Amino acid sequence: MEIKYENYNVMKYFRLFIICVSALIFSVCLYCQSITENSLPLRAQNFLNINFPGNNIETVALYQNGGGYEVDIDFGYNFIFYNTGLWKKITATNDKAKAKGIPRSCIHKSMVNVIDNSYPHSKITSIERKNKNYIIILNDKYQLEISGYGIIINETVLDDETDTQ
Predict the structure, then answer these.
(1) Do 50 and 105 contact (CB within 8 A), yes or no?
(2) At CB < 8 A and 24+ separation, what contacts does 72-79 make?
(3) If both were cysteines, with which of 8, 35, 70, 128 could 89 make a disulfide (CB 3.0 to 4.6 Å apart)?
(4) CA dist., res. 83 & res. 20, Å (int)
(5) Long-range contacts of range 151-157, CB-CB < 8 Å, 24 or more positions apart?
(6) Are 87 and 116 in contact (CB under 8 A)?
């Protein structure tokens, strides 16, 4: 009689485990959905074609609840776009892309001038829009917070995490 009771408990926990795993898989599928390149907003498609000509899009994902789109291209860059097609974040994901850098054409000329004057010959490895400002990482060494008008708000050296204001 005890053996049957133990088997019943094991089966009960096994069923609970299967239900939990199924719920997790279902929730992940609801959050992110793979789509085609043509499903991207026209603004995002134009941005990619102008700034990264000749790219081949590897993956496109749509995030539910207003999360936007995530795109990976074969040049080694990852993009997150708002639902409108405006980019939110651009990241160079491999060594070749980091050595080449994110094209300066992705940001406003006033920011390019500040970067070129303060950090000549630097490569942009990551850019993110954040509260009307831009967080820009150069050569994976320096993090700058720059306003849309090209004013440096904060400079951080990433190697030793010291603030160089």
Answers:
(1) yes
(2) 73/48, 75/100, 77/52, 77/102, 79/44, 79/48
(3) 128
(4) 31
(5) 151/114, 152/114, 152/118
(6) no
pLDDT digits (tens, 9 = 90+) for 96-132: 999 999 999 999 999 999 999 999 999 999 999 998 8
Give the tokens for residue 29: 């599928």
Q: Give the residue from 91, 89, 143, 147 showing the smallest Cα distance to 119.
A: 143
Q: Which two tokens stand for residue 62?
A: 């749509």
Quote the distance between the C-alpha of residue 93 and its chain's center. Answer: 10
Q: Are 81 and 71 in contact (CB under 8 A)?
A: yes
What's the pTM value of the predicted model, to 2 decimals? Answer: 0.74
Burial class from Cβ neighbours inside 10 Å (0-12, 13-18, 19+) for residue 9 reads exposed
Q: Tokens in use for 108?
A: 């406003």
